[in-house]
């Protein structure tokens, strides 16, 4: 049985797709057969971040409608052969997603995969609800600003009441916090919420802090998940996140923006 | 001759009726327990309308002879006024018996209260008179006649997140934080042994003696029996402090708990 992870936030633009791509790649790199599904029907992005947009033939909706088999629609990643992508349809909208259809696809994937990462669309409508409904674990992606935190809080409420686990009265979805686009310098200046501020409201298990980093944008544009950029802080932070999720005890980094020895020496800012 | 006075008029109104939650389809046991309950408060139950809730029964996949149940309830002295949570077949049977079907109201993302409470899932609480509104004009049941069992205290241990609503027909006790954008309501008192950031409304049915207690007051809105204050009106001194809130001559008093 696969473990189903939903990457969610409520608010848009906080880094859900970046995170989905990074952790799916990270899990695959560690030897777990992983599928990552784009639930953002109509606003297909995940394939771009993973650099496979030119190989999309069939999509998630085709599989739900029985127009293509799962194997036809799954795209194997070119960097890691344990990672498969199920892209969203660009020409349809969220109404094309059905409860039964999504459940069937996830069931079928579960037989064969270790982890299934569901990249949720923004909002709290159908796409987002279906992305989280079947989840076992939730990565709540939050930016250190008040509206993102509020939306995450709302999402946590939905996770605890509208999921399959909640409906069946099973053990609740395990919720983790991922604080992205964190800029320690701006936190020091009081321009950004600190980790403590965010945790005071959300009080979740912190899986990692992803520092604001230019490498994220360049990795996205290049179609290579940032986790593969091992030199970048964001890449390392995502690697830590995956390790912690898999049970490794690692100290949190990038909280106070302490500059490394080399950077202090050269005063550079990456 | 032209009749100028209207023949009839429709008005929207709510009234209260006990809800019968069935955990078994054993008619003999149901009848027995009903009589026991009625003996506790004969005036309250006499000729009382009754809503039948089948969700628990259907969770257990138990079949039910509807006609027989309706007969039994009438014999015992109730007037069944509708069902909710029934499956297709049960709804059909109810319709055949002229019983209206109520779709179960879920308040946004509200937690369905009581279902997870252990005390209710026991066989003993065969009849749990939960109070709920039904759309039918009728005089409200006198609150004084409500037996103590109906004022269940609800205990919540998980955080109440933004957008969630909790309603308690008695007191409400919350051990975790209540986020901004959440709404907690109780006909009785509200206790929050953590930070209260959302809206808290106590005594929502007009109980002016209800109070709100919280460990750290950062609420968006507090209200007792309809008298309210928003966070803007909250005194800086009491903000972020453990307080109790009560009504005195229609004024909300917020007092620190030392």
Describe the structure.
The complex is a heterodimer of chains A (270) and B (258). Chain A has 270 residues and is an alpha/beta fold. Chain A contains 13 helices and eight strands. In chain A, a hairpin with a 6-residue loop joins strand 3 and strand 4. Chain A starts with a strand and ends with a helix. Chain B is α/β, with parallel strands linked by helices and 258 residues long. Chain B is built from six helices and 16 strands. In chain B, the strands form three sheets. A six-stranded mixed sheet of chain B has the order 6-8-10-12-15-16, with no helix packed on it. Chain B has a five-stranded mixed sheet with strand order 4-3-2-1-5. Chain B has a five-stranded mixed sheet with strand order 7-9-11-13-14, with no helix packed on it. At the A-B interface, helix 7 of A face loops of B.
Helical run tally of chain A:
13
Radius of gyration of chain A, CA atoms, in whole angstroms: 18 Å
* Class inferred from helices and paired strands of chain B: alpha/beta
What is the H/E order of chain A? EHEHHHEEHEHEHHEHHEHHH
Sheet-strand content of chain A, in percent, reads: 15-25%
End-to-end CA span of chain B: 75 Å
Task: Tell me the strand order in the biggest sheet of chain A.
Answer: 3-4-2-5-1-6-7-8
User: What is the CA-CA span between the terminal residues of chain A?
Assistant: 41 Å
**Given the C-alpha coordinates, what overall shape of chain A results?**
globular
H/E series of chain B: EHHEHHEHEHEEEEEEEEEEEE
Structural class of chain A: alpha/beta
């Amino acid at each position: 049985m696969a473990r189903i992870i939903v990457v969610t936030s409520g608010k848009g633009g906080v880094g859900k797709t970046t995170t989905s791509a990074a952790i799916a790649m990270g899990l695959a790199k560690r030897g777990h057969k992983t599928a990552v599904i784009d639930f953002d029907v109509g606003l297909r992005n995940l394939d771009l971040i993973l650099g496979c947009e030119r190989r999309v033939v069939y999509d998630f909706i085709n599989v739900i409608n029985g127009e293509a088999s799962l194997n036809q629609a799954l795209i194997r990643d070119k960097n890691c052969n344990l990672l498969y992508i199920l892209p969203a349809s660009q020409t349809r909208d969220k109404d094309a997603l059905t409860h039964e259809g999504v459940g069937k696809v996830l069931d079928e994937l579960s037989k064969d995969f270790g982890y299934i990462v569901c990249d949720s669309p923004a909002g709290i409508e159908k796409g987002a609800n279906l992305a989280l409904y079947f989840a076992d674990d939730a990565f709540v992606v939050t930016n250190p600003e008040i509206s993102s935190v509020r939306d995450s809080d709302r999402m946590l409420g939905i996770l605890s009441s509208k999921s399959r686990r909640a409906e069946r009265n099973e053990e609740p979805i395990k919720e983790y916090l991922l604080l992205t686009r964190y800029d320690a310098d701006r936190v020091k200046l009081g321009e950004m919420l600190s980790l403590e501020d965010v945790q005071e409201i959300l009080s979740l298990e912190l899986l990692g802090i992803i520092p604001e980093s230019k490498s994220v944008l360049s990795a996205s544009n290049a179609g290579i998940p940032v986790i593969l950029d091992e030199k970048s802080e964001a890449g390392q932070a995502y690697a830590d996140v995956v390790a912690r999720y898999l049970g490794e005890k690692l100290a949190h980094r990038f909280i106070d923006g302490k500059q490394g020895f080399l950077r202090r020496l050269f005063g550079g800012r990456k | 001759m032209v009749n100028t006075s209207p023949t009839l008029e429709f008005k929207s109104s709510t009234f209260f009726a006990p809800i019968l939650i069935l955990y078994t389809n054993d008619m003999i046991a149901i009848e027995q327990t009903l009589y026991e309950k009625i003996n506790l408060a004969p005036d309250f139950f006499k000729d009382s309308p009754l809503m039948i809730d089948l969700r628990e029964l259907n969770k257990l996949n138990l079949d039910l002879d509807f006609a027989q149940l309706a007969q039994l309830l009438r014999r015992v002295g109730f007037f069944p006024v509708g069902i909710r949570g029934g499956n297709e077949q049960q709804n059909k049977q109810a319709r055949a018996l002229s019983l209206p079907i109520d779709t179960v109201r879920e308040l946004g993302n509200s937690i369905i209260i009581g279902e997870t409470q252990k005390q209710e899932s026991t066989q003993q609480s065969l009849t749990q008179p939960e109070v709920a509104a039904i759309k039918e004009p009728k005089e409200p049941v006198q609150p004084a006649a409500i037996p103590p069992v109906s004022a269940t205290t609800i205990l919540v241990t998980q955080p109440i997140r933004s957008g969630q609503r909790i309603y308690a027909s008695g007191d409400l006790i919350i051990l975790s934080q209540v986020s901004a954008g959440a709404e907690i309501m109780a006909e009785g008192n509200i206790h929050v042994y953590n930070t209260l950031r959302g809206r808290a409304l106590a005594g929502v049915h007009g109980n002016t003696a209800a109070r709100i207690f919280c460990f750290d007051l950062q609420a968006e809105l507090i209200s007792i029996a309809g008298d309210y204050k928003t966070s803007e009106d909250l005194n800086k001194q009491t903000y972020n402090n453990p307080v109790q809130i009560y009504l005195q001559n229609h004024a909300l008093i917020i007092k620190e708990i030392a």
